[in-house]
Amino acid sequence: VNEEAFDFLLVGAGISLSNLASDVDAQNIHKSFFRFFDRFKNQKHLFSAGSLIKDKTKLFTEQSLCSVGIFVNRGFTTANNIIVVINSFDDLFLLEYTRTLVKTTEGTVSILNRVSYISEESNRIVKTLIDFTVEITGTILLPEKDLINESFSGQDFMLVSYNSWNILSEEANEALQDMPSTLIIRHKA
Fold first, then answer.
1. Per-residue pLDDT, 47
2. What's the predicted TM-score (pTM) here?
3. Strands 81-86 and 108-113
4. Which residue has the higher pLDDT, 13 or 128?
5. What pLDDT sits at residue 62?
6. Is the dihedral of CA 45, 46, 48, 53 positive or negative?
7. Alpha carbon distance 74, 71 (integer Å)
8. Residue 36: pLDDT over 90
9. How far, in Å, CA of 69 to CA of 13, rounded?
10. CA angle at residue 188 from 182 to 189, to 5 degrees?
């Protein structure tokens, strides 16, 4: 990727985040296998395919000189109802990806602005988001600040930055269990 100077690398997230029946079955077999070996010694880390995939994805994401998208397939068919998570000023690049998606799908967009109202960058972010909702028909700002299970109601696609994903996977892990198909993007300017 780095030698060919590509603009964008798209990789799959692997089965650990999938909710497809075949992937869930594979994960259950994997868990059963390691429950059996846990009796002998804690050597689980030697065989963990899930962590190997995560490590490879992290390597692609952090060492590629181009932007990287990590696609989480949760039964993807279309991106008609898109949720975009804004966690900081640095996440505003997602609006360009959203603009392109909306042009091709003619879908709707819900923006979840998680930035605290008391932060220094809050006013600039809110102004940019309001301008975006005026420009792009079918776009709304969600009233809530937290990502909860209900945030995904009616949504079939999510856009989130790589940095925000890392935060959300810690802070909103339970809500992410209900997420739709997702594109996690590490943007390289």
1. 33
2. 0.80
3. parallel
4. 128
5. 83
6. positive
7. 9
8. no
9. 9
10. 125
pLDDT above 70: percentage of residues in the chain: 77
- Rounded to whole angstroms, how far apart are CA atoms 9 and 147? 27
Can you give the pLDDT at residue 174?
Answer: 87
Quickly list DSSP for the chain. -TTTT-SEEEEE--GGG---HHHHHHHHHHHHHHHHHTTT-S-HHHH-HHHHHHHHHHHHHHH-SSEEEEEE-SS----SEEEEEE-SGGGGGHHHHHHHHHHHH--EEEEEE-S-TTSTTHHHHHHHHHHHHHHSTTEEE-S-SS--GGGGTT--EEEEEHHHHHHHHHHSHHHHTT--EEEEEE---
| Amino acid 115: pLDDT | 94
Q: Which two tokens stand for residue 140?
A: 């709304």
Q: Mean pLDDT throughout 96-101?
A: 96
Q: d(Cα 110, Cα 138) in Å, to the nearest integer?
A: 8
- For the record, the structure tokens of 13 come out as 């997230």
